[in-house]
Amino acid sequence: MRLPSTFRLLAGGCAAAAVISATSFTAAAETREVRLMKQVGIASLTMAVMEHERLYEKHLAAAGLPDTKVTWTRLVGGNVVNDALLSGSLDFAVAGVVPLSVIWAKTRGTPNEVKGVVSLNSIPIYFNTRNAAMQSLKDIKETDRIALPAVKVSIQAVILQMAATKEWGESQVHKLDTQTVTLAGNDAFTALTSGQGEITCVMSAAPFAQLQLSKPGIHTVFTSYDVLGGPHSLNVVYTTAKFREQNPKSYAAFIAAFKEATDLVNSDKRRAAETYLKVMQEPISVDALTEILQDPRVISSLAPQGVTAITNFIHKIGLIKVKPQSWKDLFFSEAHDLPGN
Asked: Which alpha helices (DSSP H) does 123-199 contain, by range?
């Protein structure tokens, strides 16, 4: 039966209103503010480039979200980062594979489950010392103190435990735990190079590791690549399943912006160094930082590396109760096609 023209217009108007209403609801469902972070050191290089070039804002606008506010903060230490993410004061976290694994195991199967988005980069961690007599961990004394970003739960702390296991056996995995001290990268640099105080060793990454080595009397005992037998992700980006599900456009825009920032870093290392120093303002020259970025061991890539080796170890020592069957268990599906391990 054909409806009278008046009813057809009403029906059409209602349908159009429904479409407009649904579209408005979808847009309104996305968050109006996305809160990002970076840590100290070039482990946050890509995030610094993204911030300076306003790449996230660019991709949010392309996704139809031009009014979304993007805010940045700086945090240090995986435990602090995880607390911020779980408290709802942070949307995209940046920390090592160990803090990600800990929070993944803690939230797995809950509405607030946390997983990785992408890897930031793979960068070696240096065990540097001012003790000229120290050529291996066997030379360390009980009076030595080792600075790292967070005791027990940071990637630096776990690499140290892995090194202790290789040196003295599995029963001695925690041998050096009581000699570790929590210090941020710049504070650890000052403590080590001052020549005074209890800090005689530091586990740190670029650029602080290289800045330490530029000072007389500082040398490297080993790197994390030596311990793991190859590259590993130093920092990764992660978020909650809730944020990803409720903000699909904002989530996709982040990945697009991060990929563009990574491509920029890899295409022009000097420009990346200049951009980083504009944001981070650390005491290193553009030339020196460019040289660090040109080191083939410093890898800017979205692909998670060394995740399986690290998670197998921290599960074995009881830091996490659930063992991932694959590195993919720790990351959302958008990362699964990356050449990770």
From this structure: 155-168, 185-193
